[in-house]
Design brief:
It is built from 10 helices and 4 strands; from the N terminus they run ββααααβααααβαα. It is mainly alpha-helical. The protein has a two-stranded antiparallel ribbon with strand order 1-2. A two-stranded parallel sheet has the order 3-4. Strand 1 and strand 2 form a beta hairpin. The protein is globular.
Length: about 210
């Protein structure tokens, strides 16, 4: 812990990145109580691994941090993976229809980010049509079947893989928020099934 600014303290958690790399797991579940820094940890992982961030900016963030002391093998992983980052924080709905609308909004954020920075000439017609389905700011349920919506992470991961030639890292913050918000709702089991399909379809097949 070191003093970073007057009346503020900075806690260096970058050693966790080393543990994350060493674990080399396909799926990592981070479970901690509220206010334990889970979101901060996930944004740290995003900013370290992301291929889309400016490399000089990444060096500015991580040079001199704890991770640098553990050797170049860790620092060489900086900027090595495309990252899909989304949060389910605002997906708090008692109804299945409301859950699907919020899922659309949460997922459309990383899709729009990729759409804005990618070279569209390198993306085939059918993949571009998929991406453009998530550009509208207003969700129209008649345009998105359950099958399409819940398989969208899987499809997006495939597009990212083809574009970069690298499998993407998927970071989902507050994945349990929709479940907790709907505990007393008759739609709770449908919402759980929707989350299982959305995440499961992506992680099992990529």
């Amino acid at each position: 812990m070191k003093s970073e600014k007057k009346d503020y303290y900075f806690v260096d958690k970058t050693r966790f990145i080393c543990d994350f790399i060493d674990d080399n797991g396909n799926i990592t579940l981070i479970t901690r109580p509220k206010r334990f820094g889970k979101t901060l940890t996930m944004t740290m992982l995003r900013d370290f691994f992301s291929t889309e961030l400016d490399r000089e900016y990444q060096k500015k963030l991580f040079n001199g941090m704890s991770i640098e002391k553990y050797g170049s093998s860790y620092m060489n992983m900086m900027g090595s993976k495309p990252v899909i980052f989304m949060t389910f924080k605002n997906m708090r709905s008692m109804s299945f229809s409301g859950f699907k609308e919020r899922l659309y909004k949460a997922f459309s954020n990383p899709v729009r980010d990729f759409y804005d920075v990618s070279d569209h000439k390198r993306i085939n017609k059918y993949d571009m049509e998929f991406l453009e389905m998530f550009l509208p700011r207003v969700y129209k349920p008649e345009n998105y079947s359950d099958e399409f919506l819940f398989s969208s992470l899987n499809k997006f991961m495939q597009i990212i893989h083809k574009y970069y030639g690298l499998k993407p890292m998927v970071l989902i913050d507050e994945y349990d928020a929709p479940v907790n918000a709907s505990l007393n709702s008759p739609d709770n089991q449908q919402i759980i099934a929707g989350i299982r399909d959305f995440i499961g379809n992506g992680l099992k097949t990529n």
